[in-house]
Design brief:
The chain is α+β, with helices and mostly antiparallel strands. The protein contains 6 helices and 5 strands; from the N terminus they run H-H-E-E-E-E-E-H-H-H-H. The protein has helices spanning 10-13, 15-24, 83-91, 93-104, 114-136, 143-151; strands spanning 30-35, 38-44, 48-53, 61-70, 73-82. The protein has a 3-stranded antiparallel β-sheet with strand order 1-2-3. A two-stranded antiparallel ribbon has the order 4-5. Strand 1 and strand 2 (38-44) form a beta hairpin.
Length: 152
């Protein structure tokens, strides 16, 4: 969520506090504000991550393991993470992957007819789904192996 959105809490929007948190913060720092049914959660890992949720409590947490270098040796260290962020990472991978594939070759066409925009979106969805089905088929060469074999 971007900080300049309408209705974003001023307590979490304070840029001086965010800069201080990014410079001096400890991994796993959590700030939250509840506004009615919506909870705004900010979590500091390598940078500040902000999510909104209507189904999570602000105090629900689990641990994320991160590699930390202590006196020249890398060790796995657990840090607290809000459950809203853990669930987002677990369940939103397909949507983000689809959006990433769609952004490569966007079929956006401006039109005053709403059915044309819907038609182009459906064509784009069909092309991406066809590409994903082709990749899932057994025996299909990956795109990088095809390039390497044709070059040699």
């Amino acid at each position: 969520v971007r900080y300049n959105r309408t209705g974003f809490p001023l307590e979490l929007r304070n840029t001086k506090q965010l800069e201080k948190l990014e410079k001096l913060g400890v991994r796993g720092d959590i700030r939250y504000v509840r506004n009615g049914d919506v909870v705004y959660v900010q979590w500091y890992d390598k940078w500040v991550v902000t999510v909104l949720s209507t189904m999570h409590q602000a105090t629900e947490r689990n641990d994320a393991t991160r590699s930390v270098r202590v006196s020249g040796v890398w060790t796995q260290t657990p840090i607290p993470r809000p459950l809203a962020i853990a669930n987002y990472n677990e369940f939103m991978g397909g949507v983000d992957g689809f959006d990433q594939l769609a952004s490569t070759y966007r079929l956006l066409r401006r039109s005053k007819k709403s059915w044309k925009c819907l038609f182009y979106d459906l064509v784009e969805c069909g092309v991406i789904n066809g590409f994903l089905l082709m990749l899932a088929r057994p025996g299909t060469p990956s795109s990088t192996s095809g390039r390497a074999s044709s070059a040699s």
